[in-house]
Amino acid sequence: MRVAVFSTHPFDRTFLAQANRGAGHELHFVDAKLSAQTLGAAQGCKGVCLFVSDVADAAIMKNLHAGGTRLLALRSAGFNNVDLAEADALGMTIARVPAYSPHAVAEHAVGLMLMLNRKLHRAHNRVREQNFALDGLLGFDMHAKVVGIVGVGKIGACVARIMLGFGCRVLAYDLVRDEELAGLGVEYVDLVRLLRESDVVTLHCPLTPQTRHLINAERLALMKPGVMIINTSRGAVIDTKALIAGLKRGHVGYVGLDVYEEEGDLFFRDLSEEVIQDDVFARLQTFPNVVVTAHQAFFTREALTNIAETTLDNITRFDREGRVAEANRVTLQRHAPRP
Ligand code: NAI
Fold first, then answer.
1. 281 and 144 assigned to the same domain
2. Model pTM?
3. Which residues in the chain land under pLDDT 70?
4. What is the helix (H) or strand (E) element at residue 164, kind and residue range?
5. Which residue in 104, 228, 279, 315 has the fewest CB atoms around it within 10 Å?
6. Chain mean position to CA 30
């Protein structure tokens, strides 16, 4: 099948080309993001392969469909960047990679917690400048602290198990209860209680209309003074301006972000020679107690191998059978946000 692969980075080419060995699809790698200006590259391609930074809104979907596209193969678990109602209306199949390595994302979230707590980012710089003083680097034991997990699906469950291993008390908020985790000692509570009692709040729910700005000024005010907030889910789950206000007041003690509301204009590119125009992002960067990584939580060898293999499997199945494995199919009916 002819497939236009948008937002291709060198690592995508390597892993996708490897997974395509034997499958023999005609992959057209496009460096640019999918947009009204670049969608011409998909003309005549039955398949279009997208990453998290590609937005397939209704207008773009209509254009793709008119150009012959019938499958959108997402190289991600999240699908908030695709207009599912339009896909339904057009009869387009949306496939994703539901689980490529929840461990990769969970371990990165825990890495951010440790980095912020023990100030490893600052310690590294100090020692490189032969400053071996410890002042300002004081951390706290994770042991016996309360970690609140919002969205306890595949990734959240991995975080829960890791934090239980640290000897933390783990609180969970989700629309569904995982009895296995509850049996391990994870305490399911409502969101307000989780926010009030947690020393660390870590976000692992998808971005939906219900979770957009889930962490806003009002909910930040409920949190413990000095709280640590980790977000590896999607940027817009946090109202960034409210978060900055909380940091400035000193109420929010630490912030670790792998995602940012407006990351589409920044992440996955080298902008080191350019002036950043996003003042909100620039302000975030000024805090000593904020660490930002550029959507790299998924970025492990194991995850990239799984992403490439599942994506190629989705393409091959669609080519042969006109459908993808049910578990990988995204539909409005199945994935419509629950109240
Ligand atoms: P999942 O679907 O296994 O789990 C999501 C959980 O969130 C489910 O248990 C669901 O019931 C819960 N949830 C949904 N709406 C909720 C709400 N309103 N309030 C509370 N809980 C709610 O998804 P998975 O694989 O654990 O991934 C979670 C998110 O992580 C993805 O949607 C994606 O946005 C993000 N992600 C980020 C990556 C990165 O590199 N930073 C990589 C992969 C995923």
1. yes
2. 0.92
3. 336-339
4. helix 154-165
5. 279
6. 22
